[in-house]
Amino acid sequence: MKKMITFGLMLLALTVQAQTARKFTLNLTDDSKAQMVCYLPQTPSGKAIVGVPGGGYSVLSNNHEGYMASEWFNQQGIAYFVVNYRLPEGDRTKPMSDVEHGIRIVRDSATAWGINPHDVGIMGFSAGGHLASVISTHADFDVRPDFSILFYPVISMDEKVSHKWSCINFLGEEGQKNPELVRDFSTMNAVRRHLTPPAIILSASDDQVVPLLTNGLEYYKAMRNAGNDCAMYVYPTGGHGFGFGPWFKYHDQLLTDLGTWLKARQAPQPDAIRVACIGNSITDGHGIDMATVYGYPALLQKKLGNGYWVKNFGVGARTMLNKGDFPYMNEVAWKDALAFKPDIVVIKLGTNDSKPKNWKFGSEFRHDLEQMIKSLNANKPRIFLCTPIKAEKMSWGINDSIIVNDIIPIQKAVASKYKLQLIDLHTLFPGGSELMFNDGIHPNGKGVEKLAEIIAEKINQVK
Question: DSSP string covering 183-223, please?
Answer without folding.
Answer: HHTSGGGS--TTTSPPEEEEEETT-SSS-STTTHHHHHHHH
